[in-house]
Predict the 3D structure of the following.
Amino acid sequence: MSRHLYTQAEQLWLECNLNKSWESRDAFVKAFNKKFKTDISVDALANYIVRHTKAGYISVKTNDCFYTDEQIKWICENANAITFKSIQHFVDTFNAVFGTNKTKAGIAKWLSSNSVSVKTRVKQTFSEAGDKWLKSNIQKYDVFMDLFNAYRDKFNADVNYASLATHCEYLGIKQRVTRKELRNRGQFKKNAPRSLGELPVGTIRYNSQGRPYIKVMLCNGASRSVDNQRHNYKEPFWKPLQKKIWEDNYGPVPDGYVVCSLNGDITDTDVRNIGLIDKRATPIMSKQGWWTDNRVITADGVQWCNLYMIAKDNGVK
């Protein structure tokens, strides 16, 4: 192949356009060929530029500057639809979804240039008035979830369950309410159910970790061992509420799988927040740090783990 002889016009075009940012070297060469109706390869033009121009290289847009249509669509759809911890959390989520290495500064510049704002979580703060209310009212609630809901309603606080529980521990307060005290307050009636076994089907209760359970079966006349089971929220009498919602929407949970919270909130019963994972893969999720409060990242991790276990079971390495 004969060497291309560059005209004065071509040399001038190169000098004028090399300092502009191009999406790729291919895009630059394509523009050159289109302008002068040539068919020069990328390597040939790059070699010429190195030897005969002052710039010596093609200025290619950095990873931070270039976004695909799919990435832009994702940013616009999710920036305000999901509450992120911070801008950095948004950047980490973006990189996890698309396998990129965008920087916080790069994405922040794009967001500012395109007038797109990211919905971030307001730092949870506790006021003196709130602390005083907690100390005065914590003994009035036999279930911490009731206290949690009352606190959020009274102070219009966007605080999560775990944060409030931790804050109560910091204040040195906890619930110490006996059934007798509750009955004296009128919170229990004389003929009220005295055990979990007597509660009607459909009753929702929270265990010591704050996980909601729903009663799905009566256990009248059960043996002592079964009576212990119902007090521990065990199946078949009780089910985790998230599991019940999953089964109502998608059918029985397959053997070897468990339901999980995709945003880390065990009280969130939105079906979009409930995932299904092979129980053998849960250590992988923990090791990789894929249990997050963002359901996009967690869902991707769960899907990867499930596919990995299926491949492993079928001898695929």
Observations:
- The first helix runs from residue 8 to 17.
